[in-house]
Amino acid sequence: MALSANLFLRQSQSLVMTPQLMQSIQLLQMTHLELMQFISQEVERNPLLEMAADDGDLGGEIPDNADRHGSASQQEAPADDMAAAPSLDSDWYEHGATERLSDRLDTNYDTAFADEGSAQRPDAPELLGQWKSMPGQSGEGSEGFDLDDFVAGQISLRDHLNQQVPFALTSPPDQLLAAVLIDHLDEAGYLRADLAEISARLGISLADIEAALKTLQTLEPAGVFARSLSECLTIQLQQRDRYDPAMAGLIDNLDLLAKRDFATLKKICAVDEEDLIDMLAEIRKLNPKPGSPFEHSISESVTPDIVVRPDGQGGWRVELNPDALPRVLVNHSYMAAVGRRGASKDTPDQAFMSECMQNANWLTRSLDQRARTITKVAAEIVRQQSAFLDHGVDHLRPLNLKTVADAIKMHESTVSRVTTNKYMMTPRGLFELKYFFSVSIASAEGGDSHSAESVRHRIRALITQESPEAVLSDDDIVDQLKSGGVDLARRTVAKYRESMNIPSSVQRRREKRAMAKISAG
């Protein structure tokens, strides 16, 4: 077969992902914090972008000179306005005017602002050079108190132990070994290290490391430096003087305790039911994670993107949260000033400013489109889940991304990006938009289907209300759900129960009976 080269003219369509289009998609899925960081970076790079000043007015309107994309022109005040301003050389500022006004109104204005302008005495003059906000500090750059300088530092588990080591171990080699062992502690206070490897690396005998570890296990908090849960509980019981042979048998069989197999534990510990209940009460007082009080996780506040309020007519009003809506302005006056100065449009300055103007207009349009998309998706979610807002989680309807996307004429991927890490403030609390999407569970009576979240809530409520004498099995829960119109298989009930960390009926019955006896005693 002969090969030959031919020319063909073909017309086709393809989607081109420009950098601006990709950034628009990224803006849609950004959280409030990520969006503010991105806008701050753009404002630093683009001289035409400005952040609107936050004057405390949440519902403030955009200035009259702002365009439809949120841009505003910075116009200079006319010279006539300066001339029209009231002069300071009026009779209100003449000498003796304050005294005459005080006599007329029977008010002493001299003491109204007694602290204004008065010199503040430094608390520690010798520390003025070290502290940037000492009371009474004067001079250039002083802005008053800085509360961050007076906040007490948080002590970590490592610092807390390092303060106790010199009192427990006096020799320098032992203190060095203690520092190495402290570095191998996890957040819960457990020792995660191979003592043989440390012995070979430091050249210290394993017996000396074991002896030092035994001493370190006496430090506070009780149970620190344990290598397992049983050792952690043993250390705490020994410090409480509650570690006896019966308690040792209980600690050695924690797997049976997790299964609530109290009958076998009574035989192993050689105790009666009353003593076993006392031992269980003692175990409950122990801390399985002694290092947890020193965990300082950063608490991040969540700013809702959508606020839902009743409209007074039996419906709901969906609004964007003004606090989560950044206001970006485009300075057209600066662009015009640069254009008047440049003689030619082909100068590098003009090319740079034109690019900045294009990026600024794109950003304002993208932010406007982002706000409209979030509002449209949230409004459809509220329309679909209005029964949940009226009556609670029992009336949460099954919902998927395709239903919302078809209703608002958007793609499912767009709805997915909008609902990721976006939050809605409702009269029933703060919820992530993803919370309102759950799978559908068929109805036993052929009616409307139920959402998986509402079914889990019903299972949790049924188990919470059960008594020690009438603990519900998975089959009993299936029957009660079916009587309530929910058709659910037994294995699905077991799966939902395990996902909520709820033990089986046998374990719950043993635990509830033991707890009832403990409370009765």
TrEMBL record:
Domain RNA polymerase sigma factor 54 DNA-binding: 351-510
Keyword DNA-binding: yes
Keyword Nucleotidyltransferase tagged: yes
Region (Disordered): 53-82
Source species, domain of life: Bacteria
Chain's role: Sigma factors are initiation factors that promote the attachment of RNA polymerase to specific initiation sites and are then released.
NCBIfam families, per database record: PRK05932.1-3 (NF004596), PRK12469.1 (NF009118), rpoN_sigma (TIGR02395)
Protein name (Swiss-Prot/TrEMBL): RNA polymerase sigma-54 factor
Gene it is expressed from: rpoN
